[in-house]
Write a structure and sequence with these properties.
The chain has eight helices and 19 strands. The protein is α+β, with helices and mostly antiparallel strands and about 325 residues long. The longest helix is centred in the N-terminal third of the chain and has 27 residues, at about 70-95. The chain is elongated and about 100 Å long.
């Protein structure tokens, strides 16, 4: 700053040599141009420097003539404003967290109809498999008295036991609370289905309107939109984990349930032509690790129907007869 002040005052430079030589070194030219912009009332930030305002101003005041005080005042105000801006930016940078917190999240997603389910191990050792078109939001490290995550879509949880810190999953308007168990959660288009393989799970409405239900191993619970209640069932849908195991079993299964399973396993949207009666069909068949094209071809030949794909990637099902 002393060099710039001397140059503005028309006096010899304290470092010796010419001003042009000084400009040629490092970031001096950018620094000088920034001060000129500030003199004109423009706002600019100097590149990665720490400014000694008092020292710079002392050098300016010692060199600039009395009849230039108005111009000097303008330069000083500009330098002080500049230093304040840099200090604020440095302070913000120092206060920014270096890692995510409990409220921050990492999200796993897959594009519709593509990719494969993703498996992640959480900080407590719990393992979560996340289906296509789904998202799991979780902290890098669990903190506090609970282990809280958020789910959108479908996921299978194998929760590590911790009697002191319940595992909490929020999804849509619902919440699951467990301490150590394995279960599957499906939510799509207003449909919610919980299937428990081991332990017990508490399923509740976060708004407190719907009475909570406890679902034990070998049971499942479905949210009934019509009655606004959880329906407890003493069995698990055989295809609840088909998206994870790639094994599908249909036994006189209504066609609407067949399509729901195919959507879960393969990630495509399927719409049934109800006007032609396709939704009245049932299917008995089984598949293991087969691709979508093969499965739909077998179903089409069995039920005499057609799967037609739109440009957007959605499938429409119609009867051929």
């Amino acid at each position: 700053m002393a060099v710039i002040a001397a140059h503005i005052a028309g006096e010899p430079l304290p470092c010796g040599g010419s001003f042009d030589q000084w400009l040629a070194h490092g970031d001096n030219r950018e620094l000088y141009e920034s001060v000129l912009q500030l003199q004109k009332g423009e706002v600019a930030l100097l590149p990665d420097i720490l400014i000694d305002v008092d020292g710079g101003w002392e050098a300016v005041s010692q060199r600039i003539e009395q009849n230039r005080q108005r111009r000097i005042k303008k330069i000083r105000l500009a330098i002080v404003a500049l230093a304040t801006s840099v200090a604020i930016l440095l302070g913000v940078a120092l206060l920014m967290p270096s890692s995510v917190t409990q409220s921050d999240a990492v999200m796993l997603t897959e594009e519709r109809g593509g990719g494969e389910p993703v498996t992640v191990t959480l900080d407590d050792g719990s393992i979560v498999a996340v289906n296509r078109n789904s998202g799991l939001f979780y902290p890098e490290k669990f903190a506090g008295s609970t282990r809280s995550v958020k789910l959108s879509g479908e996921g299978f949880f194998d929760v590590a036991k911790d009697s002191l810190r319940p595992f909490v999953i929020d999804f849509d308007r619902f919440r699951v609370v467990v301490k150590g168990t394995s279960f599957n959660i499906l939510q799509k288009d207003g449909r919610v289905e919980l299937s428990v393989l081991s332990g017990s799970v508490e399923l509740a409405d976060t708004k407190g309107v719907i009475p909570k239900v406890v679902v034990n191993a070998g049971q499942s619970s479905v949210f009934d939109e019509a009655t606004r209640s959880f329906v407890l069932r003493n069995f698990i849908n055989p295809n609840a984990l088909a998206w994870k195991t790639r094994r599908i079993v249909f036994n006189n299964t209504p066609f609407s349930d067949v399509c729901a399973t195919l959507e879960s396993v393969y990630g495509f949207d399927i719409e049934i032509d109800t006007t032609a009666g396709a939704d009245d069909l049932t299917l008995t068949a089984s598949f293991s690790h087969d691709d979508f094209e093969y499965v739909t071809k077998v179903i089409s030949l069995t039920l005499d129907i057609s799967f037609n794909r739109s440009d957007e990637g959605k499938y429409f099902v119609t009867l051929l007869k």
